[in-house]
Design a protein that fits this description.
single chain, ten-stranded mixed sheet, 21% strand, disordered N terminus, Quinoprotein dehydrogenase-associated putative ABC transporter substrate-binding protein, signal, Solute-binding_3/MltF_N, Quinoprotein_dehydrogenase
Length: 273
């Protein structure tokens, strides 16, 4: 789960150039604008038209800081952090998986999980584990290189997987949209996708459902805590964002729920109350 797209940020590390010394890093942040690094086409998370839920979070934080919002747009993939955040042309990535070494993480502001998308009227609608024998022999969509692809293979479903590329420019390719369309048409029996990507899109389609994978017992974990990413060394900036997250958690949760993001507790075991 890393935007990335969060799915990229959760699933693979990017190559990165060296950073300036810690004493120099603090001087890179703007004190007149809330400068966000974002993918222009990572719908439903971020979009250049401002419709993504991360766009709404950026507006919330800019308002709380009393600063105008400014974006640096760049497709999330190889080089995203190096050419945006680390280049000093923007100051925060709104959605970034906890624990990645390319950024300094704020406190997490939500936890979500990969899940399985099926038609509501599908014989697989009750499936909530990738080891369920009902999945055997059924075509299943998944993004190659993501944690659920490993779990599907371990469950003996490698021959049933239909994979999409992990690193794509979503201005010209739409793997999540393609998978959901094929689930709806019946070409795929199911798709296994990152919740913040699939949940909002499934919410808009009455024929589909998203079931978080909360019962997996082997392989990579299926849930991830999502933070904001800043440059290493910018401790004061991180503390300011942590304070904003803490004071505005209810508003953040409301934005995420309104968008259809599946929000779990901090341990990825149950929906957040």
């Amino acid at each position: 789960m890393r935007r990335l797209c969060p799915i990229l940020l959760v699933s693979a590390a990017f190559c990165a150039a060296g950073l300036p010394a810690a004493g120099q890093v603090a001087d890179l942040r703007s004190h007149t604008e809330f400068r966000v690094c974002a993918d222009p086409a990572a719908v439903p998370m971020s979009s250049q038209d401002g419709s993504g839920f991360e766009n709404r979070l950026a507006v919330l934080f800019a308002d709380e800081l009393g600063m105008p919002l400014a974006y640096t747009w760049f497709p999330q993939g190889a080089g995203f952090i190096r050419k945006t955040l680390r280049a000093g042309i923007c100051d925060v990535v709104i959605g970034y998986a906890q624990g990645d070494e390319l950024v300094q993480n704020t406190n997490h502001y939500y936890t979500s999980a990969y899940g399985i998308v099926t038609r509501k009227d599908s014989p697989l609608a009750a499936v909530d584990m990738l080891e369920d024998p009902a999945l055997k022999g059924k075509p299943i969509g998944v993004v190659a290189g993501t944690p659920p692809a490993t779990n599907l293979a371990r469950a003996g479903l490698a021959k049933d997987m239909k994979g999409w590329d992990l690193f794509v420019d979503r201005r010209v390719e739409n793997p999540v949209g393609d998978m959901l369309a094929q689930v709806k048409s019946g070409e795929l029996a199911a798709a296994v996708l990152w919740g913040p990507l699939a949940g909002p899109l499934v919410k808009q389609d009455p024929e589909l459902q998203f079931t978080p994978l909360l019962k997996e017992t082997t392989g990579p974990r299926m849930f991830y805590r999502i933070t904001m990413g800043v440059r290493p060394g910018e401790d004061e900036w991180k503390r300011k964002l942590n304070s904003l997250i803490r004071r505005n958690q209810d508003k953040i949760d409301a934005i995420l729920r309104d968008a259809g993001v599946p929000i779990l507790d901090d341990y990825g075991k149950a929906p957040k109350p």
